[in-house]
Design brief:
312 residues; alpha/beta; TIM Barrel; 11 helices; 8 strands; 44% helix
């Protein structure tokens, strides 16, 4: 564990919320076009920044209502070199917009954090390729070098942690963790799984977590499961020591597989109250899981139901 990790407030038993599926919410609810499913270009316009502020305010209001902490996850899931190049960003422009995103998160915290709702600023890193398909995976060293640029931009902007979301293979997770460690930042690794509770590579969650911990001397401060419905992974959370490494959940609203979601033309919002109950059931079994948010198809309504069910 890095020195900085010891100051992360969510490492105690208090409940911390985070946001839901930012891209699906902006597209389907706010009617905003997001080329390549990328939210970060919104930072380039006044209207875009206003849309992001509205988006985060919905969740911050939920955290205030529930009296929980809140993790401000930056809208930078697509902001790595390969995706950004397709959107016209060179290395300098990409570093700049990554830093501007973190500046916005700091502004939100300055405006809305309270003693009852402390906030943590997180630099969000997404997969190099498609989150649903592992494709041609990098080596550990390649992943460290590739994601290092975004990590360094976040470090320069003053993030408190790095969070890798929808990671589908262990070399990429290892690379993010090592890049964060090199910049003196704690990392959180959030794996995505298929309907069988395994990574798209076929690896089990246990194997993935143990592999990353072994390769990084347990550098990630904790792990999360993301972009899958609770019914896809609840049976996979069996074990002793390795399951305690999971402290966060960002589930999908939909029970559909990744392949089905890829083909869907209408957003499946699932049942927010049912999802809240499923989170509560998981928390009863694994009470150390205390960082709760959503992924595809979820919005502030889902997170509110999660907060109500789990805070009780």
């Amino acid at each position: 564990m890095t020195t900085n990790a010891r100051s992360l407030p969510q490492l105690d038993d208090r409940l911390y919320l985070t946001d839901g599926g930012i891209e699906t919410a902006l597209i389907f609810q706010d009617g905003i076009d997001l080329p390549l499913f990328a939210a970060f270009p919104l930072l380039n316009s006044t209207d875009g920044i206003a849309a992001l502020n509205r988006y985060y305010r919905r969740y911050i209001d939920v955290a205030h209502e529930a009296g929980t902490g809140f993790i401000l996850e930056s809208p930078m899931w697509r902001a790595n070199a390969d995706w950004a190049l397709q959107l016209g960003y060179d290395g300098r422009a990409l570093a700049d917009i990554n830093q501007r995103a973190i500046a916005l998160m700091h502004e939100l915290r300055a405006a809305y954090a309270t003693p009852e709702t402390p906030m943590v600023v997180s630099g969000c890193i997404g997969p190099r390729g498609d989150g649903y398909r592992p494709g041609a995976t990098m080596t550990n060293d390649e992943a460290t070098a590739y994601h290092g640029a975004q990590v360094r931009a976040f470090a320069d902007a003053g993030v408190e942690q790095i969070t890798a979301i929808t990671i589908n293979n262990t070399p990429e997770a290892i690379g993010v963790a090592r890049a964060a460690l090199a910049s003196g930042l704690p990392s959180v690794i959030s794996f995505t799984v298929e309907t069988d509770g395994r990574l798209p590579t076929g690896q089990s969650l246990e194997e993935a977590i143990r592999s990353v911990d072994e390769a990084t001397d347990a550098a990630p401060v904790y792990y999360m499961v993301t972009c899958a419905h609770p019914t896809h992974f609840d049976g996979a959370l069996e074990g002793a020591d390795w399951v305690r490494r999971i402290r966060g959940l960002r589930a999908n609203a939909s029970r559909c597989s990744h392949a089905e979601l890829d083909e869907a033309e209408v957003l499946d919002e699932g049942n927010p109250r049912e999802l809240g109950g499923q989170y509560s059931t998981l928390r009863e079994r694994y009470p150390w899981i205390n960082v709760l948010g959503g992924c595809c198809g979820t919005d502030h309504r889902h997170v509110r139901e999660i907060a109500v069910a789990c805070a009780a």
